[in-house]
Write a structure and sequence with these properties.
The protein is an alpha/beta fold. The chain has 2 domains: 3-421 and 443-453, Rossmann fold, CATH 3.40.50.12780; 497-626, GMP Synthetase, Chain A, domain 3. Helix content is 32%, strand content 24%. It is built from 18 helices and 31 strands. A 7-stranded mixed sheet has the order 5-4-17-16-18-19-20, sandwiched between helices. It has a 5-stranded parallel sheet with strand order 7-6-8-11-12, with helices on both faces. A hairpin with a 7-residue loop joins strand 14 and strand 15. The longest helix is centred in the N-terminal third of the chain and has 17 residues, at 87-103. Bound molecules: coenzyme A (COA) and adenosine monophosphate. The site of coenzyme A has 24 residues, from strand 9 and helix 12.
Length: 630
């Protein structure tokens, strides 16, 4: 069938379409109904079906005779370690880890926070939770203690699983001080912290609370997969919203497994036994879906890479891993390729490796800028596939359906809607706009399987964030347009979320943190375009009257505050001290005008008659020029 036929079938009869896909998986109790409403009026996929995602990702392949095939390859240039797990070995490791968690009192519905570097134990811990029907919440290892504490308080986990350290290039990042601080800040106290000790950093154990992963594993008996409802949560993944409180995106088990299995074939053209490499981090949605669950449910071999695109040891790192493990498809963020291009613009290091195995390259997480696209396509002479999705959807919304019918690429477009996603462009009053016109990217309900059913313990925020603005639609908070051929162009966020080196961050949260500084009267943080990181946050700060701090000192302290409260990857380095901020007559800060100024699109600025003090714009403009931001 052609892409068009498949896509149209998925919208004409979503229930029939997804029920057929569900039959590809071995359920413990197959669902009888595809879509139904739950008690709270939410549309849910596959209610009544029972399954276990760890069983689908591991035991099902062992039982089908694939036990000796590699499931997970670990490559760590930062430690020099490598290892491989067959499906049988990974199944056994996960079964023992699940036994360990069970001994520690973890059961169905309990939460477990996982704060780990890119080591196999991170994947094992996730799958062990899934095996027991427990709900994991992985926190990216780059987050500072405060972010970890917020997530611990919201998820209320029984346990935290961690390692003694992460490694950033040649820098050891001990995790224990971060966890200790997070637990001091958090109101909720998990019963235990289980550490994977690594030779690079020791743990000073808190007796009774801290446990050694290896000792506990040695004592454990393997646990069998526990049947769970299709609508039981598999995980919570926190993502940045517009305030300091992150959104706990809930992922249900059945719909997610069905959607990932389908997408692995239809979008990524991956089949059992093939090797799929996603260079990201298990702390992000890309890691959840396409390092862990997608490739394993599909029966592929996945690669856990504890390194960077550059300086581990050089800009040939990606080509080395692809060639060494014979990856058929590779997926990373555009920023990672920009890092490679910056260090090796001629891609000389590519000459050292045979990457003939590589068929397709996928990128997502931020806009693929045309210069990076052209460099990649020229360098690799292979399809470079941009695709658009969000933590909330869990899998691609717009992509090139490489496993169905590769479509011609248009630079700047993520190509065509994926099956199940009925995408419309709406103006601010909710009316559809004609082809070629820019507006809000919205998805007509129902969302396909795998997308978030709610936010953790915050249904009201779920409705308010995604459903209330355009009744009958999911509001993506991205803007864009669809051209006459149906190609979707995603232009950027319409809210206070920015994307820094493929990391999603909230400018609202940064403003809340900066607003606590003793010298700051008010502030606005906006994202400005950056050639390397995509976007970079810049803070415009009005100091309090009578404050004796120099602008340099304020800049330094605020940058440090953001590092300490969010993490170094937030990369707030530029702070402009100004006398006033542009505001509307009613006192709202005109962030959009500040962003527009940075983009040098003066004609789209709020009209001076609606601004409280139009000279404030000139002042921001001057500050940008003085700080080299324009
Ligand atoms: N633990 C601790 N610190 C971390 C960290 C982690 N897991 N990840 C990043 N940091 C720190 C870095 O060490 C750096 O610290 P510094 O300012 O003290 O030097 C800071 O955060 C900024 O890091 P980053 O934004 O990652 O920049 P970089 O120059 O170190 O690396 C890339 C650039 C492109 C390699 C990196 O940003 C990257 O891999 N991005 C892709 C993200 C991604 O996979 N997104 C998911 C969508 S596919
Ligand atoms: P995250 O939830 O971290 O995956 O971030 C999701 C956001 O990243 C989206 O809402 C977009 O703003 C942006 N994004 C992700 N992929 C793309 C893409 N291919 N093109 C443009 N923007 C993207």
């Amino acid at each position: 069938m052609s892409y068009r036929e498949i896509y149209e079938a998925s919208l004409r009869d979503p229930e029939g379409f997804w029920m057929e896909q569900a039959q590809q998986l071995s359920w413990m109790e197959p669902p009888r109904q595809a879509l139904s409403q739950d008690e709270e009026g939410r549309q849910r996929w596959f209610r009544g079906g029972r399954l276990n995602v760890s069983q689908l990702a591991l035991d099902a392949h062992v039982n089908a005779g694939r036990g000796e095939q590699n499931a997970l390859l670990y490559d760590s240039p930062v430690t020099g370690n490598r290892s491989a797990y067959t499906y049988r070995e990974l199944r056994d490791a996960v079964a023992y880890a699940a036994g360990m968690l069970r001994d520690l009192g973890v059961g169905h519905g309990d939460r477990v926070v996982i704060y780990m570097p890119m080591i196999p134990e991170a994947v094992i811990a996730m799958l062990a939770c899934a095996r027991l029907g427990a709900i994991h919440s992985v926190v990216f290892g780059g987050f500072a203690a405060n972010e970890l504490a917020t997530r611990i308080d919201d998820a209320q986990p029984r346990l935290v699983i961690s390692a003694s350290c992460g490694i950033e290039f040649d820098r050891i990042i001990p995790y224990q001080p971060l966890i200790d601080e997070a637990l001091q800040r958090a109101g909720h106290a998990p019963e235990h912290v289980v550490y994977v000790p690594r030779p690079q950093a020791a743990v000073s154990w808190t007796p009774g609370r801290d446990l050694d992963w290896h000792e506990q594993m040695a004592r454990a008996a393997p646990a069998e997969p526990v049947p769970v409802d299709a609508t039981d949560p598999l995980y919570i993944l926190y993502t940045s919203g517009t305030t300091g409180k992150p959104k706990g995106v809930v992922r249900d088990s059945g719909g997610y497994a069905v959607a990932l299995n389908w997408s692995m074939g239809a979008v990524y053209d991956m089949h059992p036994g093939e090797i799929f490499w996603t260079a990201s981090d298990v702390g992000w949605i890309v890691g959840h879906s396409y390092i862990v669950y997608g490739p394993l449910i599909r029966g592929c071999t996945t690669i856990v890479y504890e390194g960077k695109p550059v300086r581990t040891p050089d800009a040939g790192a990606f080509w080395r891993v692809i060639s060494e493990y014979r990856a058929k498809a590779f997926f990373t963020a555009p920023t990672a390729f920009r890092a490679v291009k910056k260090e090796d613009p001629e891609a000389r290091l590519l000459g050292d490796y045979d990457i003939s195995c590589l068929e397709n390259v996928f990128v997502a997480g931020e806009r693929l800028d045309p210069p990076t696209y052209e460099w990649l396509a020229d360098t690799l002479q292979r399809p470079v596939i941009d695709h658009w999705w969000q933590t909330e959807t869990g899998w691609p919304i717009v992509a090139n359906p490489m496993g169905i019918e590769p479509m011609p690429v248009k630079s700047g477009s993520a190509t065509l809607p994926v099956a199940g996603y009925d995408i419309r462009i709406l103006d601010d009053s909710g009316r559809e706009v004609p082809a070629g016109e820019q507006g809000n990217l919205a998805i007509r309900l129902p969302l396909p399987p795998g997308c978030l059913p709610t936010l953790w313990h915050d249904e009201a925020r779920f409705r308010q964030s995604y459903l209330d603005r355009f009744p009958g639609y999911y509001d993506t908070s991205d803007a864009g347009y669809i051209d006459e051929d149906g190609y979707v162009f995603v232009m950027g966020r319409v809210d206070d979320v920015i994307n820094v080196a493929g990391h999603r961050l909230s400018t609202g949260e940064m403003e809340e943190i900066i607003g606590n500084h003793r010298a700051v009267a008010e502030c606005a943080v906006v994202g400005i375009q950056d050639e390397y990181k995509g976007e970079l946050p810049v803070a415009f700060v009005v100091p309090k009257d009578g404050v004796e701090l120099s602008a340099e000192r304020i800049e330094e302290e605020l940058a440090q505050m953001i590092r300490n409260e969010i993490g170094a990857f937030a990369a707030l380095r530029r702070v402009a001290v100004v006398d006033k901020l542009p505001k509307t007559r009613s006192g709202k800060i005109l962030r959009k005008s500040i962003r527009t100024l940075a983009g040098q699109e003066r004609e789209q600025l709020a009209t001076p008659s609606t601004i409280d003090d139009p000279t404030s714009l000139d002042e921001i403009d001057e500050a940008m020029q003085a700080y080299g931001l324009r």
